[in-house]
Amino acid sequence: MSDSTKGSLLFAAGATFLLTACLDGNSSGYTPTEAVAASPAISCSDLTTRFTYANATLTSVTAVAAGATEAAGSTGLTVAMPAYCKVLGKLNQRVSPVDGKTYAISFEMRLPTNWNGRFFHQVNGGTDGAVVAATGDILGGGQTSSGLTKGFSVLSSDAGHASEAGAIGGGVFGIDPQARIDYGYNAVAALTPMAKSLIKTYYAKGPDKSYVVGSSNGGRHAMVAASRFGDQYDGFLAGSPGFNLPKAAVAQLWGVQQYAPISAMGSNARPDITTSFTVADTKLVSDKILAKCDALDGLVDNTVSDVIACQSAFNIATDVPTCSGSPDGTCLTSAQKTVLAAVHAGAKNSAGAALYSKFLWDEGIYNTSSSGFRTWKFLNSTGPRDPLAVAFIFMTPPVSPTVLSGAGTTLLDFALNYNGLGFSVDNDAPKISATNSTYTESSMSFMTPPDLTMAKMVANHGKMILVQGAADPIFSVQDTINWYEGFKTNYGTSATDSARLFIVPGMGHSRGGPATDQYDMVDALVNWVEKGIAPSSVTAKARGTGTIAASSANADVPASWSPSRTRILCPYPAIAKYKGTGSIEDAANFSCQ
Ligand SMILES: [Ca+2]
Fold it and tell me: Which of 128, 182, 281, 472 is catalytic?
């Protein structure tokens, strides 16, 4: 099944909704309203006695003075925070009948003294498991503001489990079926009304407008919220959305099994997959993609803005030389080219059935930074990515922790299917859709949006902005495009009244790459939700050396660029085109076409 036909079939079930959908157009009669600022009605410490909510416990309530400096976002600059009331608590504490461990949805809320009347649910990345500081990450790179500095009341949580210490600590919560479901969607379900109640207790009014914002797994949370809880939020910002996360994780393990045969043997007597493509090898691919595709957008500027056109223009078979000997940075072996072609065509089982989307050819995917191919496809600190998530959280039944201990080579062996005792693509990939008497929801059910038409969001006049790097090596932007094309098929021309997708040329996973990755989609979303100003373009900036604190600079910004290059990001399928005059480093000289 091709990617495009898959998108159509996914939406077939939602086609009838087309007849009844009420979208925001000039004829809909819907008038957006703006949030109204308010001040606390009680003191911060009074929350301890004034706030009561079923199964919720506040464990700490602290008034924080203005001026404390913290990172604005996950990789943001350190900025001064405003005065706020910091609340820590737990919701739905329980003991699992399956693994005997104690679970709770632990959360942090920051309630600013100068409140803008809005709620910001900061949904976090990875497999959750930690209460990330509720600063209100606005996504992108080098954030200079945050939800909190903008005046939102911000909520963050661990999504229902605390990561345990040890090599399998980040995934073993998946043994508990309720912890799986909390991670998938139920933490958001439980927290949303509680957070609104806490806000109402503190300010004597609930939030006028509510937003859910996150990237990666957080982007997944935002899309799941639009589907399941689209009547409880007004705006959804989904960055690098891993909305098919179980499939993407399976594709990662499939990938390890593709790289292994072209890898050198490591000292542990296992293939060292980091040797399958050297930095020089991937740089060569990046250079060849750029050479073939840069001019397709009408301007040679060391940026591939028309990544879609690049897909038919670039051909790894003919555009990258084949080595007659060993790779030396000027060629790839025939086997390497076959593997890369397969990776971009998308993971498949032995019968040729697609397990996940294809990946786009983009120069940024082969950069050497933390957002690039080598980092995401090969290894993290404990071994290949995703054995734990697949084995414990996504497969039903899960793998026993006694088998996958994390000690020695057990994680690698699972990914490699070493001696046939690990992850079998053919036999185990279907287990992401399986249930049994203990695990009554499959991971494809609890992790993904059950309604891809986002009918609740659309009916509520909600707005969604999706933003993703063309070079995202872990969650394919093609998968997001497929969803968006289905959304457009369902809603027709009015689809852009509800959701817009911004593809960032060259950007890797959530940030980084040869890209303008510093942008503020939160302001764009608020203007859309509350003023009815749909985002027709969003300005983005490079953060090259010297333009920002050294620790927040993006080393992938090409030397041929101005380090402070700006560009407009355009709603898909439009791309930024040069107007023909003026500096090519300035966004003002480009338009979305
Ligand atoms: Ca170009």
Answer: 472
The question of whether 106 is a catalytic residue gets the answer no
The secondary element (H helix, E strand) that includes residue 63 is strand 56-64
Q: Provide the token pair at 325.
A: 């000997």
Catalytic residue among 145, 156, 216, 510: 216
Whether the predicted pLDDT of 437 surpasses 90: yes
How far, in Å, are 21, 83, 125, 219, 517 from residue 122 at the CA level?
A: 29, 19, 10, 10, 19
- Kindly provide the b/e burial profile for residues 131-149, where b requires at least 16 CB atoms within 10 angstroms of the residue's own CB: bbbbbbbbbbbbbbbbbbb
More confident residue, 525 or 3: 525
Q: Using a CB cutoff of 5 Å, list residues around ligand 1, an ion.
A: 294, 297, 299, 301, 303
**Active-site residue, from 306, 479, 509, 556:** 509
Q: Each residue of 195-238: pLDDT tens digit?
A: 999 999 999 999 999 999 999 999 999 999 999 999 999 999 99
Q: Rounded to an integer, what distance in angstroms lies between the CA atom of residue 498 and that of residue 465?
A: 9
For residue 563, the SS3 value is coil
**Whether 509 is catalytic:** yes
Summarize the confidence of residues 371-377 as an average pLDDT: 85
**Integer Cα distance of 586 and 540 in angstroms:** 10
Q: Which of 375, 379, 381 is nearest to 513 (CA)?
A: 375
The encoded tokens of residue 264 equal 């050198």
Cβ atoms 470, 308 nearer than 8 A: no
Question: In what helix (H) or strand (E) does residue 58 lie, and over which residues does it extend?
Answer: strand 56-64
Distance CA 390, CA 499 (A): 30
- How large is the average pLDDT for residues 363-391? 84
pLDDT value at residue 380: 67
Number of neighbours of residue 94 by Cβ within 10 angstroms = 15
Phi/psi of residue 73, nearest 5 degrees = -145, -165
The Cα 36–Cα 209 span in angstroms is 9
Q: Could you tell me whether strands 538-541 and 153-157 are parallel, antiparallel, or unpaired per DSSP bridges?
A: unpaired
Ligand 1 center from residue 163 Cα (angstroms): 43
Q: What pLDDT does residue 75 have?
A: 78
CB contact at 8 A, 192 and 211: no
Question: What's the pLDDT at 76?
Answer: 78
Q: Cα separation of 513 and 200, whole Å?
A: 42
CA 576 to chain centre: 23
What is the token pair recorded at 461? 């006049």
Phi, psi of 415 (to 5 degrees): -65, -40
**Lookup: tokens for 523:** 């302001």
Q: Which two tokens stand for residue 473?
A: 């090596």
Whether 216 sits among the annotated catalytic residues: the reply is: yes
